[in-house]
């Protein structure tokens, strides 16, 4: 009889533990899924900033060259 009670308690304990593990896993997955979109958005924003920066640098370089060409053309005339 005592042996049956011990086995029963052990089984109940195992069942309780098994119920908790999936709950923890689900919570972890939910937390991760919340973080992933945030990370993706941050990456896109960073990439966008880099593209804008390169574009601006390119425009600045182009604008520096245009007056130089104009001056050279005037000098040739």
Topology record:
Layout: H1 2-76
Please compute the radius of gyration using only Cα atoms: 34 Å
Mean pLDDT: 82
Q: Spell out the helices and strands N to C.
A: H
The total of helices stands at 1
Uncertain ranges: none
Q: Structural class, judged by helices and strands?
A: mainly alpha
Percentage of residues in helical conformation = over 70%
* Number of E strands: 0
Largest sheet: none
Beta percentage is under 5%
Separation of termini?
Answer: 115 Å
InterPro entries: CsxC (IPR039286)
GO cellular component, one term: exosporium
Structure notes:
The protein has one helix at 2-76. The chain has 77 residues and is mainly alpha-helical. The longest helix has 75 residues, at 2-76. InterPro entries: CsxC. Residues 1-77 are annotated as: Disordered.
Q: Could you name the key traits of this structure?
A:
77 residues, mainly alpha, 0% strand, CsxC
Short description:
By secondary structure, the chain is an all-alpha fold.
């Amino acid at each position: 009889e005592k042996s049956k009670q011990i086995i029963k308690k052990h089984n109940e304990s195992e069942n309780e533990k098994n119920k908790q593990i999936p709950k923890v896993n689900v919570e972890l997955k939910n937390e991760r899924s919340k973080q992933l979109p945030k990370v993706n958005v941050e990456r896109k924003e960073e990439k966008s900033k880099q593209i804008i920066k390169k574009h601006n640098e390119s425009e600045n370089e182009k604008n520096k060259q245009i007056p130089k060409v104009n001056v050279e053309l005037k000098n040739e005339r």
